Amino acid sequence: MRKLLVICCTPLFLFAQEKENNHTVEWNSNFLFESNGLNKSFLNTMLYGGHISREMKTTWINAGTETNIIHSEISNGVSYTYYFKKQSIGFSFADRNLLNVSFTDDLLRIVFEGNYKYQDKILFFNNTSIRADRFKQYKLSYGTAINKITINGAISYLAGNHHLSYILEKGSLYTAPFGTSLAIEYDMKAFVTDTSNFSAFTNNGNGIAINLGADFSTKEYDIHLSITDLGFILWNPSSITLATDSNFSFQGIEVEDIFSFNDSVLKANNLKDDGFKTNNVSFKSYIPATIHMAVSVKTEHKYFQTYTAGILAKWQPYMDNEPLSFAKIEQGFQQSNFSPLYYLQTIVKTKYINLIPDISYGGLPVLVNRDALSFGLAIAKGEKYKFILGTKHLEDLLNGDKAQAVSIYLKIKLNF
User: What SS3 class is residue 375?
Assistant: First the structure.
Protein backbone atom coordinates (compact mmCIF):
# COMPACT_ATOMS: atom_id res chain seq x y z
CA MET A 1 0.00 0.00 0.00
CA ARG A 2 2.84 2.40 0.86
CA LYS A 3 4.54 1.65 -2.50
CA LEU A 4 1.26 2.24 -4.33
CA LEU A 5 0.81 5.59 -2.55
CA VAL A 6 4.32 6.68 -3.50
CA ILE A 7 3.76 5.71 -7.15
CA CYS A 8 0.45 7.59 -7.28
CA CYS A 9 1.89 10.73 -5.69
CA THR A 10 5.09 10.83 -7.76
CA PRO A 11 3.56 13.02 -10.50
CA LEU A 12 2.49 15.51 -7.85
CA PHE A 13 6.03 15.68 -6.44
CA LEU A 14 7.44 16.23 -9.94
CA PHE A 15 4.89 18.96 -10.65
CA ALA A 16 5.75 20.67 -7.38
CA GLN A 17 9.42 20.76 -8.37
CA GLU A 18 8.69 22.59 -11.61
CA LYS A 19 9.15 26.32 -11.85
CA GLU A 20 6.41 28.11 -9.94
CA ASN A 21 3.90 30.19 -11.88
CA ASN A 22 5.04 33.78 -11.95
CA HIS A 23 4.13 37.13 -13.43
CA THR A 24 6.26 39.90 -14.89
CA VAL A 25 5.26 43.53 -15.39
CA GLU A 26 7.70 45.69 -17.34
CA TRP A 27 7.89 49.38 -18.26
CA ASN A 28 10.09 50.57 -21.14
CA SER A 29 10.92 54.13 -22.18
CA ASN A 30 13.28 55.04 -25.00
CA PHE A 31 14.51 58.37 -26.36
CA LEU A 32 16.91 58.34 -29.31
CA PHE A 33 18.26 61.03 -31.64
CA GLU A 34 21.04 60.27 -34.13
CA SER A 35 22.56 62.27 -36.97
CA ASN A 36 25.64 61.88 -39.13
CA GLY A 37 26.17 65.58 -39.76
CA LEU A 38 23.97 67.98 -37.84
CA ASN A 39 25.04 68.23 -34.23
CA LYS A 40 23.62 69.50 -30.95
CA SER A 41 24.35 73.16 -31.76
CA PHE A 42 22.22 72.91 -34.91
CA LEU A 43 19.38 71.20 -33.02
CA ASN A 44 19.43 73.83 -30.25
CA THR A 45 19.43 76.66 -32.80
CA MET A 46 16.45 75.18 -34.68
CA LEU A 47 14.48 74.49 -31.50
CA TYR A 48 15.26 77.59 -29.45
CA GLY A 49 16.20 80.16 -32.10
CA GLY A 50 19.21 82.43 -32.26
CA HIS A 51 21.49 84.04 -34.83
CA ILE A 52 22.91 81.68 -37.47
CA SER A 53 26.23 83.02 -38.68
CA ARG A 54 27.87 82.26 -42.02
CA GLU A 55 30.57 80.29 -40.19
CA MET A 56 27.93 78.12 -38.50
CA LYS A 57 26.29 77.33 -41.85
CA THR A 58 29.64 76.36 -43.38
CA THR A 59 30.45 74.18 -40.38
CA TRP A 60 27.13 72.34 -40.59
CA ILE A 61 27.51 71.70 -44.31
CA ASN A 62 31.11 70.48 -43.98
CA ALA A 63 30.24 68.28 -41.00
CA GLY A 64 27.84 66.23 -43.07
CA THR A 65 28.45 63.43 -45.49
CA GLU A 66 27.21 62.99 -49.05
CA THR A 67 24.01 61.55 -47.60
CA ASN A 68 22.86 63.04 -44.31
CA ILE A 69 20.70 60.93 -42.01
CA ILE A 70 18.58 61.98 -39.06
CA HIS A 71 16.81 59.32 -37.03
CA SER A 72 14.75 59.81 -33.91
CA GLU A 73 12.47 57.64 -31.80
CA ILE A 74 10.43 58.38 -28.69
CA SER A 75 8.52 55.43 -27.29
CA ASN A 76 6.88 54.38 -24.03
CA GLY A 77 5.31 51.03 -23.29
CA VAL A 78 4.15 48.61 -20.64
CA SER A 79 3.93 44.80 -20.83
CA TYR A 80 2.63 41.89 -18.77
CA THR A 81 3.85 38.27 -19.08
CA TYR A 82 2.56 35.14 -17.37
CA TYR A 83 4.87 32.10 -17.15
CA PHE A 84 3.49 28.60 -16.63
CA LYS A 85 5.43 25.35 -16.93
CA LYS A 86 7.59 25.78 -20.06
CA GLN A 87 5.35 28.35 -21.70
CA SER A 88 4.56 32.04 -21.46
CA ILE A 89 1.88 34.39 -22.70
CA GLY A 90 1.96 38.16 -22.61
CA PHE A 91 0.37 41.42 -23.67
CA SER A 92 1.96 44.82 -24.22
CA PHE A 93 1.02 48.34 -25.23
CA ALA A 94 3.34 51.01 -26.63
CA ASP A 95 3.09 54.54 -27.98
CA ARG A 96 5.73 55.01 -30.70
CA ASN A 97 6.94 58.15 -32.49
CA LEU A 98 9.43 57.70 -35.35
CA LEU A 99 11.30 60.14 -37.59
CA ASN A 100 13.70 59.20 -40.39
CA VAL A 101 15.19 61.80 -42.75
CA SER A 102 17.70 61.45 -45.56
CA PHE A 103 19.04 64.35 -47.68
CA THR A 104 22.13 65.45 -49.60
CA ASP A 105 24.68 68.14 -48.77
CA ASP A 106 23.52 70.04 -51.86
CA LEU A 107 20.11 70.49 -50.25
CA LEU A 108 21.80 71.99 -47.19
CA ARG A 109 23.77 74.31 -49.45
CA ILE A 110 20.68 75.67 -51.19
CA VAL A 111 18.81 76.07 -47.87
CA PHE A 112 21.65 77.77 -45.97
CA GLU A 113 23.49 79.62 -48.75
CA GLY A 114 21.09 80.02 -51.66
CA ASN A 115 22.13 79.46 -55.27
CA TYR A 116 24.31 82.57 -55.83
CA LYS A 117 27.54 80.71 -54.98
CA TYR A 118 26.68 77.87 -57.36
CA GLN A 119 26.34 79.62 -60.71
CA ASP A 120 26.92 77.36 -63.73
CA LYS A 121 26.69 74.34 -61.40
CA ILE A 122 24.11 71.63 -60.79
CA LEU A 123 22.99 70.88 -57.23
CA PHE A 124 21.51 67.40 -56.77
CA PHE A 125 18.78 66.42 -54.31
CA ASN A 126 18.46 62.74 -55.30
CA ASN A 127 17.18 60.18 -52.78
CA THR A 128 15.84 62.75 -50.36
CA SER A 129 13.22 61.37 -47.99
CA ILE A 130 11.28 62.41 -44.91
CA ARG A 131 9.26 59.84 -42.95
CA ALA A 132 7.36 60.56 -39.73
CA ASP A 133 5.01 58.13 -37.95
CA ARG A 134 3.02 57.97 -34.77
CA PHE A 135 1.08 54.83 -33.87
CA LYS A 136 -0.07 52.71 -30.96
CA GLN A 137 1.07 49.07 -30.83
CA TYR A 138 -0.97 46.37 -29.05
CA LYS A 139 0.97 43.11 -28.94
CA LEU A 140 0.00 39.57 -27.95
CA SER A 141 2.97 37.25 -27.45
CA TYR A 142 3.50 33.54 -26.79
CA GLY A 143 6.60 31.48 -25.99
CA THR A 144 7.26 27.78 -25.51
CA ALA A 145 10.24 25.51 -24.91
CA ILE A 146 10.64 22.46 -27.15
CA ASN A 147 13.54 20.27 -26.09
CA LYS A 148 16.42 22.78 -25.81
CA ILE A 149 14.90 25.41 -28.08
CA THR A 150 12.75 28.30 -26.87
CA ILE A 151 10.47 29.66 -29.58
CA ASN A 152 8.79 33.05 -29.26
CA GLY A 153 6.18 34.67 -31.45
CA ALA A 154 3.94 37.71 -31.32
CA ILE A 155 1.30 39.48 -33.35
CA SER A 156 0.58 43.19 -33.06
CA TYR A 157 -2.33 45.39 -33.96
CA LEU A 158 -1.12 48.82 -35.08
CA ALA A 159 -3.46 51.76 -34.57
CA GLY A 160 -2.08 54.44 -36.88
CA ASN A 161 -2.35 58.01 -35.62
CA HIS A 162 -0.42 60.06 -38.17
CA HIS A 163 1.94 59.58 -41.11
CA LEU A 164 3.89 61.96 -43.31
CA SER A 165 6.39 61.05 -46.01
CA TYR A 166 8.04 62.96 -48.85
CA ILE A 167 10.16 60.92 -51.24
CA LEU A 168 12.28 62.75 -53.82
CA GLU A 169 13.81 60.03 -55.98
CA LYS A 170 15.58 62.54 -58.21
CA GLY A 171 15.99 66.28 -58.09
CA SER A 172 18.37 68.94 -59.36
CA LEU A 173 18.79 72.69 -59.69
CA TYR A 174 20.92 74.39 -62.35
CA THR A 175 21.75 78.12 -62.07
CA ALA A 176 23.10 79.78 -65.23
CA PRO A 177 25.90 82.38 -64.93
CA PHE A 178 24.65 85.66 -63.45
CA GLY A 179 21.34 83.94 -62.72
CA THR A 180 19.97 84.49 -66.21
CA SER A 181 18.04 81.20 -66.01
CA LEU A 182 17.13 78.39 -63.67
CA ALA A 183 16.36 74.78 -64.47
CA ILE A 184 14.68 72.56 -61.87
CA GLU A 185 13.93 68.87 -62.28
CA TYR A 186 12.24 66.68 -59.69
CA ASP A 187 10.33 63.44 -59.25
CA MET A 188 8.48 63.48 -55.95
CA LYS A 189 5.86 61.43 -54.16
CA ALA A 190 4.17 62.47 -50.93
CA PHE A 191 1.79 60.76 -48.50
CA VAL A 192 0.02 62.57 -45.66
CA THR A 193 -2.79 61.37 -43.41
CA ASP A 194 -5.82 63.46 -42.48
CA THR A 195 -4.60 66.74 -41.02
CA SER A 196 -7.93 67.87 -39.56
CA ASN A 197 -7.16 66.32 -36.15
CA PHE A 198 -3.69 65.85 -34.68
CA SER A 199 -4.83 64.22 -31.45
CA ALA A 200 -2.60 61.49 -30.04
CA PHE A 201 -5.53 59.05 -30.21
CA THR A 202 -6.80 59.87 -33.70
CA ASN A 203 -7.19 56.66 -35.70
CA ASN A 204 -6.16 57.32 -39.30
CA GLY A 205 -5.16 53.75 -40.14
CA ASN A 206 -4.89 50.12 -39.08
CA GLY A 207 -2.07 47.64 -39.46
CA ILE A 208 -0.44 44.45 -38.34
CA ALA A 209 3.07 43.29 -37.39
CA ILE A 210 4.63 39.98 -36.37
CA ASN A 211 7.59 38.80 -34.28
CA LEU A 212 9.43 35.50 -34.64
CA GLY A 213 12.38 34.38 -32.52
CA ALA A 214 14.31 31.38 -31.27
CA ASP A 215 16.87 30.80 -28.51
CA PHE A 216 18.92 27.65 -28.20
CA SER A 217 22.16 26.47 -26.63
CA THR A 218 25.13 24.39 -27.64
CA LYS A 219 27.82 23.11 -25.29
CA GLU A 220 29.49 26.51 -25.06
CA TYR A 221 27.23 29.10 -26.65
CA ASP A 222 23.73 30.54 -26.30
CA ILE A 223 22.35 31.66 -29.66
CA HIS A 224 19.53 34.13 -30.35
CA LEU A 225 17.77 34.68 -33.69
CA SER A 226 14.80 37.00 -34.19
CA ILE A 227 12.88 39.32 -36.45
CA THR A 228 10.61 41.87 -34.77
CA ASP A 229 8.01 44.38 -35.94
CA LEU A 230 7.73 43.10 -39.49
CA GLY A 231 4.56 44.91 -40.50
CA PHE A 232 2.71 47.77 -42.12
CA ILE A 233 -0.18 50.21 -41.69
CA LEU A 234 -3.00 50.78 -44.18
CA TRP A 235 -4.03 54.42 -43.90
CA ASN A 236 -7.60 55.65 -44.37
CA PRO A 237 -8.95 56.74 -47.80
CA SER A 238 -9.14 60.32 -46.51
CA SER A 239 -5.32 60.44 -46.69
CA ILE A 240 -3.64 62.63 -49.30
CA THR A 241 -1.25 61.25 -51.90
CA LEU A 242 0.71 63.42 -54.30
CA ALA A 243 2.87 62.48 -57.28
CA THR A 244 4.72 64.75 -59.70
CA ASP A 245 7.50 64.38 -62.25
CA SER A 246 8.25 67.87 -63.51
CA ASN A 247 10.72 70.10 -65.28
CA PHE A 248 10.69 73.77 -64.45
CA SER A 249 12.61 76.20 -66.66
CA PHE A 250 12.75 79.88 -65.76
CA GLN A 251 14.42 82.25 -68.27
CA GLY A 252 13.82 85.53 -66.51
CA ILE A 253 11.27 88.27 -67.18
CA GLU A 254 11.80 91.29 -69.37
CA VAL A 255 9.45 94.16 -68.42
CA GLU A 256 9.28 97.17 -70.72
CA ASP A 257 6.58 98.94 -68.76
CA ILE A 258 6.22 98.19 -65.06
CA PHE A 259 2.62 99.45 -65.13
CA SER A 260 1.65 96.82 -67.71
CA PHE A 261 3.10 93.92 -65.71
CA ASN A 262 0.48 91.14 -65.48
CA ASP A 263 -0.01 87.40 -65.75
CA SER A 264 0.38 87.48 -69.53
CA VAL A 265 4.02 88.44 -69.07
CA LEU A 266 4.57 85.31 -67.02
CA LYS A 267 2.78 83.10 -69.54
CA ALA A 268 4.97 84.43 -72.32
CA ASN A 269 7.98 83.09 -70.51
CA ASN A 270 9.45 79.66 -71.20
CA LEU A 271 7.76 77.95 -68.30
CA LYS A 272 6.92 74.27 -68.19
CA ASP A 273 5.49 72.47 -65.19
CA ASP A 274 3.58 69.21 -65.47
CA GLY A 275 1.71 70.02 -62.27
CA PHE A 276 0.80 68.01 -59.20
CA LYS A 277 -1.46 64.97 -59.18
CA THR A 278 -3.23 64.88 -55.83
CA ASN A 279 -5.69 62.20 -54.71
CA ASN A 280 -7.50 61.14 -51.57
CA VAL A 281 -6.86 57.40 -51.39
CA SER A 282 -5.64 54.74 -49.00
CA PHE A 283 -1.96 53.80 -49.01
CA LYS A 284 0.39 51.43 -47.19
CA SER A 285 3.47 52.36 -45.16
CA TYR A 286 5.94 50.05 -43.43
CA ILE A 287 7.23 50.30 -39.88
CA PRO A 288 10.93 49.50 -39.28
CA ALA A 289 11.56 45.77 -38.78
CA THR A 290 14.63 44.60 -36.84
CA ILE A 291 16.64 41.47 -37.66
CA HIS A 292 18.83 40.36 -34.75
CA MET A 293 21.40 37.60 -34.32
CA ALA A 294 23.49 37.20 -31.16
CA VAL A 295 25.87 34.66 -29.62
CA SER A 296 26.63 34.58 -25.87
CA VAL A 297 29.31 32.70 -24.00
CA LYS A 298 29.72 32.23 -20.26
CA THR A 299 33.07 32.50 -18.51
CA GLU A 300 34.40 31.67 -15.05
CA HIS A 301 35.68 35.19 -14.49
CA LYS A 302 34.63 36.71 -11.18
CA TYR A 303 33.21 39.91 -12.67
CA PHE A 304 32.86 39.38 -16.45
CA GLN A 305 30.62 36.32 -16.43
CA THR A 306 29.00 36.71 -19.86
CA TYR A 307 30.05 38.05 -23.26
CA THR A 308 27.59 38.65 -26.11
CA ALA A 309 28.40 39.44 -29.74
CA GLY A 310 25.63 40.35 -32.16
CA ILE A 311 24.50 42.03 -35.34
CA LEU A 312 21.40 44.14 -35.99
CA ALA A 313 19.83 45.17 -39.30
CA LYS A 314 16.73 47.21 -40.22
CA TRP A 315 14.20 46.70 -43.04
CA GLN A 316 11.80 49.46 -44.09
CA PRO A 317 10.91 50.26 -47.73
CA TYR A 318 9.69 53.75 -48.60
CA MET A 319 6.41 52.53 -50.11
CA ASP A 320 4.51 49.51 -51.36
CA ASN A 321 5.60 49.74 -55.01
CA GLU A 322 6.96 46.23 -55.68
CA PRO A 323 5.68 42.66 -55.14
CA LEU A 324 7.40 40.47 -52.56
CA SER A 325 10.67 39.33 -54.14
CA PHE A 326 14.42 39.42 -53.61
CA ALA A 327 14.37 42.91 -55.16
CA LYS A 328 11.80 43.99 -52.55
CA ILE A 329 13.91 42.57 -49.72
CA GLU A 330 17.00 44.40 -50.99
CA GLN A 331 14.99 47.59 -51.39
CA GLY A 332 13.85 47.44 -47.76
CA PHE A 333 17.42 47.19 -46.45
CA GLN A 334 18.66 50.04 -48.64
CA GLN A 335 15.79 52.42 -47.88
CA SER A 336 15.91 51.83 -44.13
CA ASN A 337 18.83 54.33 -43.95
CA PHE A 338 20.50 51.92 -41.52
CA SER A 339 23.79 50.08 -41.94
CA PRO A 340 24.32 46.74 -40.15
CA LEU A 341 25.28 47.32 -36.53
CA TYR A 342 27.86 45.05 -34.90
CA TYR A 343 28.15 45.05 -31.12
CA LEU A 344 29.94 43.39 -28.20
CA GLN A 345 28.38 43.45 -24.74
CA THR A 346 29.22 42.12 -21.29
CA ILE A 347 27.82 42.24 -17.76
CA VAL A 348 30.03 43.39 -14.90
CA LYS A 349 28.65 42.17 -11.57
CA THR A 350 29.53 44.14 -8.45
CA LYS A 351 28.32 43.99 -4.89
CA TYR A 352 25.57 46.58 -5.21
CA ILE A 353 24.87 47.09 -8.93
CA ASN A 354 25.54 45.50 -12.29
CA LEU A 355 27.15 47.44 -15.12
CA ILE A 356 26.30 46.58 -18.74
CA PRO A 357 28.87 48.16 -21.09
CA ASP A 358 28.83 47.64 -24.84
CA ILE A 359 30.80 48.75 -27.88
CA SER A 360 29.27 48.96 -31.37
CA TYR A 361 30.11 49.88 -34.94
CA GLY A 362 27.63 50.68 -37.67
CA GLY A 363 23.98 51.49 -37.45
CA LEU A 364 23.43 54.85 -39.06
CA PRO A 365 26.14 56.13 -41.45
CA VAL A 366 27.17 58.48 -38.65
CA LEU A 367 29.13 55.64 -37.06
CA VAL A 368 30.65 54.35 -40.29
CA ASN A 369 31.63 57.60 -41.94
CA ARG A 370 33.38 59.10 -38.97
CA ASP A 371 35.37 55.89 -38.51
CA ALA A 372 34.51 55.77 -34.82
CA LEU A 373 33.03 53.34 -32.36
CA SER A 374 30.01 53.97 -30.20
CA PHE A 375 30.04 53.13 -26.50
CA GLY A 376 27.01 52.27 -24.42
CA LEU A 377 26.57 51.84 -20.68
CA ALA A 378 23.66 50.76 -18.51
CA ILE A 379 23.28 50.49 -14.74
CA ALA A 380 21.14 47.62 -13.45
CA LYS A 381 19.92 47.14 -9.90
CA GLY A 382 17.97 44.26 -8.39
CA GLU A 383 16.83 40.82 -9.51
CA LYS A 384 13.21 40.33 -8.52
CA TYR A 385 12.56 44.03 -8.92
CA LYS A 386 14.96 45.23 -11.60
CA PHE A 387 15.77 48.80 -12.61
CA ILE A 388 17.90 49.56 -15.69
CA LEU A 389 18.98 53.01 -16.90
CA GLY A 390 21.35 53.39 -19.82
CA THR A 391 22.54 55.10 -22.99
CA LYS A 392 23.77 53.79 -26.35
CA HIS A 393 25.93 56.86 -26.99
CA LEU A 394 28.05 57.47 -23.92
CA GLU A 395 30.78 59.23 -25.92
CA ASP A 396 28.39 61.93 -27.14
CA LEU A 397 27.43 62.88 -23.59
CA LEU A 398 30.96 64.31 -23.33
CA ASN A 399 31.04 66.11 -26.71
CA GLY A 400 28.94 69.12 -25.78
CA ASP A 401 27.62 71.05 -28.81
CA LYS A 402 29.46 68.67 -31.15
CA ALA A 403 27.37 65.69 -30.03
CA GLN A 404 25.66 63.92 -32.94
CA ALA A 405 23.60 61.43 -30.94
CA VAL A 406 21.61 61.37 -27.72
CA SER A 407 19.99 58.26 -26.27
CA ILE A 408 18.43 57.37 -22.95
CA TYR A 409 16.48 54.23 -22.12
CA LEU A 410 14.73 53.12 -18.94
CA LYS A 411 13.44 49.71 -17.99
CA ILE A 412 11.60 48.76 -14.78
CA LYS A 413 10.84 45.06 -14.36
CA LEU A 414 8.77 43.54 -11.55
CA ASN A 415 8.62 39.76 -10.99
CA PHE A 416 6.05 38.31 -8.60
Answer: strand
- Helices then strands (H, E): number in the chain? 7, 19
| Residue range(s) defining the domain that contains residue 248 | 24-415
Q: How many domains does the chain have?
A: 1
Which of 400, 390, 212, 217 is CA-nearest to residue 291?
A: 212
Residue 33's beta-bridge partner residues? 72, 406
Write out the H or E segment, with its range, that includes residue 43: helix 40-48
- In a domain? residue 149: yes
The reply to whether 313 falls in a domain is yes
State how far the alpha carbon of 248 is from the alpha carbons of 244, 264, 266, 306, in Å.
12, 18, 13, 61
DSSP class of residue 402 equals: G
The reply to whether 17 falls in a domain is no
Mean pLDDT, range 159-166, rounded to an integer = 94
| Position 51 in a domain | yes
CA distances to 37, 41, 44, 177 from 49, rounded to whole Å, are: 19, 11, 7, 34
**Whole-prediction pTM:** 0.84
Q: How confident is the model at residue 262 (pLDDT cuts 50, 70, 90)?
A: low
